[in-house]
Predict the 3D structure of the following.
Amino acid sequence: MKSLRLLGISASPRGKGNSYYLLTIACRAAEEATQDVETEIYTFEKKNFAPCVHCYGCREDGQCVIRDDFQSLAEKWFAADVILYSVPVYHMSIPGQLKCFLDRLGVVAMAREKDGKGGLIHRNS
């Protein structure tokens, strides 16, 4: 039986703060609840995420053209079966790094949609 891949994302740039601590407890609980789950924790500590510039360069191959920490997290995100976010609240919203990641992820996810024949769907602007 295939294990579920749970990706825990600690979106705090502070690293080992409250968001990370709570996420480790949740991931540990998932591991204890069943043997059919593999957990991985990704932290935003010391990571850089630039904002999406909506250049649609990702339409060519489903990859964002901006080179930073987005690529490594996006690949983990697409490979995961379950994603658990642990997010601090900054001024009644999410941290800017997470917002940048999610904005780019949405555009890349749309670019990666398949046309039913194994090819990427290309949309006109």
